[in-house]
Amino acid sequence: MTAALINHLWQSTLFCCGAWLITLMLRANSASLRHWIWLLASAKFLVPFSLLFFIGSSIGIPAARLTDEQPLVLGDALQSASLLVSPGALRVTESTESTAALVILFSIWFGGALFVALRWLVAWRSANTIARAARPAPGAPSDTRVTDADIEPAVARVFHPVVLLPAALLGRLSEREMNAVLAHEHEHIERHDNLKANIHRLVETLFWFHPAVWWIGRQMIEERERACDERVLESGHDGADYAAGILTVCQHCRTGPSHASAATSGNLTRRVRYILGSSRPQALGVIKTLSLLVATIAVATAPLFAGAIVDGAHRMELLAFNSRTLESGEFVIGPARGTDARSRVVANSNAVSIRNSSMRDLIALAYGVESWSVEGESWLDSPRYDVHVFVRDPVSEPEELDPQALRGLITRLLVARFDVEVHVNQRCQSPCGRYALLAQDTQD
Length: 444
Known about the structure:
five-stranded mixed beta sheet, 11 strands, 54% helix
C-alpha cells in the first residue's frame, strides 16, 4: 500500500511538471486551453497510472503458442519502459515499516484532510445560504440575483448556478461596466468553472500535504480568470469599461464567497494590464495541435499498453517455465471418477490433474485447439480419463497455469498410452510414435 502511494505521488508530480512545460509552450495561446491542462494535472492525482496499468494487464496480450524456435521473453527495453507506470516500479519493504509510524502518519493525514474538508463544507454552505437569500435582479437574466451580502460579484452553486450581484454596486457601475462584469460571471457559468474548481478541491482534500496540488490550484485560478477575460473582450466589450468595472468592484466590495468564482480572483494587476493592452491569444496552429493530440494519446494509452505488454511477457515466461517443468513430469492415467460434464485442469505446486477428460479433449489440448474442432467418431468421447501429473520441481503460479504448458506432456501421454502421433504442419511432434518413445527412454 505504501509503495503504491509513493509510486502514485512521484508519477503525479512528474505529470504536473510535464503539464507546466506544456503551458509554458502555450503561454501565447488561449488561457482556456491552459486551464484544461492544469485541470488534467489535478485530475491525475485521482487516477493512478497503476490503475490503468492494471486494466491493461487485465486485457493482456495472448501468450504465443510456443515452438522450439520461438523466443520466450520480450525485449528488455519494453520491461524497462514499463517501470514508469508499473506498480512495482518502486518497492518498499513492508516488514521494515513501523506500525506506530504508519498510525501516526495516517492520523496526521486524516486530520489535515478533515480540516480542509470542513473549510470546503463551511464555504459551500456560506455561498449556498447567500444564494438562497438573494432576490432576482430587475432587468437582468433569470440567473442573476441581487444580494445584500458584502461580497463582490460571483457565481455560486455547481448545479443551477446563479450570479450574485451585491446591492452595493447598483448605481455605482455604468451600464457598460455592469454588462462587462456580468459577462465575466456568465462566462464562468458557461465554462462550468465551479464544477472544475470542486474537482480540484477534492484533490486538495485528499493530497493536502503535496505542495504541487496547491500550486496547481493557483494556476487554475489564474488561467480561469484570464480565459473569462479573453471571452469578454472577444464578445465586443470595451477594455477600458471592463477594467473600470473591476476597479470599482475592488473599491466597494469585500472579497467574494470562497466557494464561488468571483470577479476579482487571480492576479488583478496582471489582469488589468492584459485587459487594457493590445495582445490577444494566438491561434493554436497545426504543429501545436498535433503535438497536443499525440501527447494526450500517449499519456492515456502508455500505461494500458505497458500493462498489456508486461502481462503478456510474464505469461510467456510462465508458460515456458511450466512447460519445461511439466514435460519431465511423471503421469498416471485412469478412469474418470468425477461426474463433471466438462474436462478441467486442477493444479497445485506439486501436481497437476486433468479430470474427466476424453480422447478428444486430450488431442485438443495437445494441438492447442478447442475440443469441438477435433473431428472423429464417438469413441473419442468415451471412455473418459483422469490424468495426474507429478513433478520434481514445483509448478510456478499454479493458479494461473496455462493449459498450453501441458502440450508436451500430453503429446508424450498420447504416444505412450494410445500410440497416437501428433502432427503440426505435417511434422510429427517429438516423441513421434511409441517406438520413438521407447528409444528415447532407452537413451535416458
